[in-house]
Here is the input.
Amino acid sequence: MRVNNSRRWAPRGVRRWIIAAAALLAAAVVRALLHPVLGPVMPGTAFLIAAVLVQYYCGLAPAVSVMLAGLCIADYLFVPPYGRLDFIDQSDIVLLVSYPFITVLFITLVERLRRAQYRAKLLAAVAQSRYEMLLRHDNERLLAQRSTDEMHRLLHHIAQYNRSLILIKALDAATSVEGSLLAASSPVTADASIDMQSFSAGVVFGRKHAHVHQEDLARVADRLVPGRHRMRFRSDGHDWRPAECVCERFTTPPGDFLILRMEERS
Here is the structure.
């Protein structure tokens, strides 16, 4: 992958030039302190090291500036005759040839190293971003699949226990209409379709609703929770007999629904 921004690894602003100036001054001070010991030997070594360090931390432009300024300082102060630029001898020529060549070589290697390092960081950031996008999409796919499976389970439940349904209640008022449409459009035959007698506040009544005692309906109307409920049903004639009922909760894309049905005896 080609990364065009790899050359922009160096920091921006005035701070890098301040660091370059400080490194140049430190190299000049160190070489001046060592001058009584070294004399004219290796006059540009300290400035070479300073230029390479500046290249590593501040970039190409400050490093080249340190190299050129160091060349002038080294030739003026540490190459005999000292303190003169109008006289050029073999020592000056050696410095003018060897110092820039070696410094440019080291600076180029460091620049390529820093660009490769920054390119690797950019690629790692892109890979991390793509990995997070894949995880997000995978989670969304799993959630959508789970919602679809839950919807299929709800429709299958309605078709299987249609004759024993008491009511279907939408827990979210915003999905009340969807709840009624869901019940009306369930994939069951006309012979086993839900007999919706009324629809109010997100509640769809099933076939067994008319056979349930009104007191039991009022008891579970506002406090219907998943689980088992004991309710009274009209038997032959006008007698009431208790029966076990089961309430189940379904989480679907339109919303959450509670289905209350009469438990069928095996």
